[in-house]
Amino acid sequence: MRLERSRVTRLTSWVLWSLRVGIESVGLIWLMVVLLTVAVSMAASSFNAAAALSAGEALRAGTALWSLGFGGMVASSSADQGTLSLPLLGLTLAQAGWTWNCVRRARPSRPAAGAAIVTASAAAAILACLTGPTGPETWPAVVGITAITGAVVAVQLQRSGNGWPTLNRWWDRRPHWVGPALSLAYGAARALALLSLLVVVAAVFTGAGRVSVLHDALAGGGFITMTGLVLLQLGWVPTLLIWACSWLIGAGFSVGTGTVFAPDRVVAGPVPTLPLLGLLPTAPLSTVGLWLPLVVTAGAMVAAWRRRAVLNALRVRYAVSAAGLAALLVAGGVGLLCLAASGAVGPGRMTDVGPQVLYTVILVLVEVGVGLAAMAVLAHPYTRTWARGALPGSILPGSRSQEPAAAERSDEEDEV
Length: 416
What we know:
It is built from 16 helices and six strands.
């Protein structure tokens, strides 16, 4: 009897704790977005008799904005204004980070506890969507929240050793060159992210004036409105970073049907008055734009050079296989990010906004793959050994320094 009561107590404890974690991980982010939206709406209103109605509309608008981070959209009451479905990836990252913190503190000890956390987060997302506008526009956020929480829970369970033994056994049977491939993919992704960040910094320097003009026109001088507008744009900064990556790769992106923003080509058109869009390039880089993607290949070569010790421990064919798998992983990841950074910002031609996904994936695969594979082959000891045997000694490194020493030895022999 005591044993059964103890089991029931433990079961109730982790179920309640899982429900708390699931609700807390979703509710806090939703509440922050809604409160900010209500504050901006109240600051922009004249506090008349319609203030209560404005607060209700602000609640629904806040929920709609919250759903933008997880696959939802904001639909306008007027058909000629279209919908807004460009994801707020900054909000997505904030949700993923907060969920990671909540699950880490919970320390789920079994997959059942993780399933309870995922179920609770999905229920909290459903309750949040019920406060949004009528219609199906916000409900995809339930799927997005569930996917994020499920991924975080699965990773935490595996890291703590409380996950699925079958998955552990499968990972233990992986080829020995998969580990170096993951290391290469991580290094190449970091290099690509750093280069994309440099592109964004350069865009800020060249387009800061246009951004300031658009921001002042929309903010209207109010502090709360200005703060809300800044935070809204911060939610789109990761989206802008992905656009910069697509631009650097050479594929470019579009802001409206028929527009192209690439290093060697710019075909602009009317865009919404969003301050961040003031960073869009106004002219191509002419001839330099054709060679700019080589920077990505150089960055991949640097990433491979920093991990040459791992690659040199493999045979050449395995080192090349690791480089190929790393390029596939980076290209696939960039493709998913490009899909996440695409959407609509209005009606008609404004429904086509985002990177050229397929073109970007192909170019990333080629540019990153060439850089990683080239360094994996050129820096390999087998290649150096083959070069010493196949090439004349006069063109190998160190041959000139060896000639004087050889001459001195011959002179000494003559003297003897």
